[in-house]
Design a protein that fits this description.
This protein is an all-alpha fold and 225 residues long. It contains nine helices and no strands. The chain has one domain. It is elongated.
C-alpha cells in the first residue's frame, strides 16, 4: 500500500469518524434521556461535551496507535522514526480532535433522530473529504474548490497528518510546496475555540426543549416499531 494513502486515511479517520461518532452519540443520548439528565447538573452541557470529547479522543488515539504500529511493520516510506514526527503527530491529533468533535455535536443537534442523522452526515463529510486532499492532492482540484476545502478543518487535519507521517519531499504536491505548520496550527486552533464556545450553547438550547414526556414518547414510539 502506498504510504501516502496510509497517511491520508489517518487524517480522514480523525476528521470523519470523530464527527460522526459524536453526532450519533448526541442523537442517541438525547432520545434515551441522558442529555435530559445532564441538563439538571450545573454546567451539565459543558461537562457532557468535554466528557464525550475525552472519551472519543481516547478511543481514536488507541486506534491511531494500533494503525501506526501495524503500518510501521508492514509498509515502507512512513517517516515516523524521528522525535519531530511524533511531536507533530501529537499536536495535530490533539488540535484536530478539539476542532472536529465539537463540530460533530453541533451537527448532531440538527437532526431529530438517529435514523435521520446517519445518511446526511456521511454524505456531507464524504463530499468534504473529496475536496480536502484526503484521497488525492488538493492541487489537482480547481482553484475555487481548493479555497473551499481549506476553510474546513478536515483539510488541515489531513495536511498535518501527512506532514508527520511522510518524508519532506512529499510536500512538493501540496499547496505552496510546504507543509504549512503555522497555518495548520492557526486554523485548527480557531476551529477548536469556535467549537468549544458554540457547541455548549447549542446543546443548552437543545436541552431546554427536552422534557420527560418527550423522552417517554420517543421510547413508546420506538417500542411500537
Amino acid at each position: 500500500m502506498n504510504p501516502t494513502l496510509v497517511a491520508a486515511r489517518a487524517g480522514l479517520s480523525r476528521g470523519w469518524i470523530g464527527v460522526i461518532t459524536m453526532g450519533d452519540l448526541l442523537v442517541t443520548e438525547r432520545e434515551d434521556g441522558t442529555l435530559l439528565r445532564a441538563k439538571a447538573i450545573p454546567n451539565g452541557m459543558l461537562g457532557y461535551l468535554l466528557g464525550k470529547v475525552v472519551n472519543i479522543s481516547g478511543q481514536i488515539a488507541f486506534v491511531v496507535a494500533a494503525t501506526l504500529l501495524t503500518g510501521a511493520f508492514l509498509f515502507t516510506g512512513l517517516a515516523i522514526g524521528s522525535p519531530g514526527s511524533w511531536l507533530t503527530l501529537a499536536w495535530v491529533l490533539v488540535l484536530g480532535l478539539l476542532a472536529t468533535l465539537p463540530l460533530g455535536a453541533v451537527l448532531g443537534s440538527l437532526f431529530p433522530s438517529q435514523r435521520s442523522a446517519g445518511g446526511p452526515m456521511v454524505l456531507l463529510l464524504a463530499g468534504l473529504a473529496a475536496i480536502s486532499g484526503i484521497f488525492y492532492p488538493i492541487t489537482h482540484l480547481p482553484v475555487f474548490l481548493q479555497w473551499t476545502g481549506q476553510v474546513f478543518p478536515m483539510y488541515w487535519l489531513g495536511l498535518g497528518m501527512r506532514s508527520a507521517l511522510l518524508p519532506n519531499a512529499m510536500a512538493a504536491v501540496e499547496i505552496g510546496h510546504s507543509w504549512r505548520h503555522l497555518a495548520t496550527f492557526g486554523v485548527l486552533s480557531a476551529w477548536a475555540i469556535a467549537g468549544l464556545v458554540l457547541a455548549p450553547v447549542v446543546l443548552r438550547r437543545m436541552a431546554r426543549r427536552e422534557s420527560g414526556s418527550n423522552v417517554a414518547a420517543r421510547r413508546e414510539k420506538a417500542m411500537r416499531r
